[in-house]
Write a sequence for this structure.
């Protein structure tokens, strides 16, 4: 759901969906990465950086998703 909302430009809804997904599956780095992208789109950069740190801690293989965003 978060991905669909993000792709359609509904970033507030995407952030909420990713937050819900993280609550259900907190050890999934992909949920944290999606959350970070939604937060970035909303201009909440400090929170986005924190979400990215957690996403990469959980799944270092997600680094490719962040390339070019810094």
């Amino acid at each position: 759901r978060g991905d669909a909302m993000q792709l359609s430009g509904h970033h507030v809804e995407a952030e909420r969906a990713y937050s819900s997904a993280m609550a259900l599956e907190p050890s999934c780095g992909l949920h944290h990465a999606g959350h970070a992208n939604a937060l970035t789109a909303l201009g909440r950069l400090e929170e986005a950086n924190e979400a990215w740190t957690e996403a990469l801690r959980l799944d270092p293989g997600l680094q490719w998703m962040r390339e070019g965003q810094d």
